[in-house]
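lol ok so funny story. i was supposed to be doing the assay writeup but got distracted and ended up predicting the structure for this chain instead. priorities right. anyway since i did it might as well share w the group, maybe its usefull for someone
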Amino acid sequence: MSRQEKVIYALGFFDGVHKGHQAILETARKLARETGMRPGVFTYENHPQSVVGGSAPPLLTTPEERRALFAHYGMEEIVMIPFDAHFSAQSPEEFLRMLIEDYRCGGLCCGDNFHFGAKAAGNASLLLELCQKLGLFCRVASPVLEKGKTVSSTLIRTLLREGDAQEAFRCLGRPFSLAGEIVHGDGRGHRLGIPTINLTPPEGALWPRVGVYATLTQMEGGETWPSLTNVGMRPTFRAQGSPTMETHLTGFQGDLYGRRVRVWFWAYLREEQKFENATLLVEQIARDTKKTQQLLQSLDRSDIYDLP
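and the output, tada:
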């Protein structure tokens, strides 16, 4: 097999495909250029913790979003397989031999906190050692720091749970977003003169902190609108129920029911609050909308990708 047919694989789950992950992908691209091979990524459809830990954490990205981001960052070969009990039982050596025999592997790249093999027995040091024995190229990417903290999916989940959308943006390299199909709500926003869309994010997706956000809403095809998004319970009108995600698109007129949109979270504005009456709510929404328009003026639209 010629070198041109072989692949340098970046290894990991890559939830969020954040700046730390991007450094691993770039390491794979550079090694592929140096060796005359093709850059790729070897990853999983489901989070490994859903098998070995019993449950997966809330996810920053869907498999389809990760695929699109891998392609955006230059990965020519994308292998995404189910992570199951049989796969998790492989030894580190068996894992590498599988990559060589079944996936034309010529080299591997990972982060310094990478673990692999049964019971996570392998780490980055062992990967380097095994690759040398098996004649594979191998590099370990250095961690990426933001404000002295290592960028990780766990850190970004924590930031979003705290409502720090802008620090999450810095760690991801783009605003956090959620996408889904528009579903019917109770029509209250329309009756108040502030029509909203109700979005149902994918199952298992991370919801950011309850509150009101300055957002940008992207339609299918890429068109974007400044928007205001409420994540929470809508306490002015109800006392209980499941959280909802409701977005008002500034200046938009039209019917979006059944269409798919993506909401990009730019900044946390305030906590959700209960108003004494609808008039006070409408007045606050007007203030929130004005602030959103001011904040979005500093948003670089090149950071907004056309994700699925």
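The mean pLDDT is 92. Residues 129 and 138 are 9 Å apart (CA to CA).
back to the writeup now i swear
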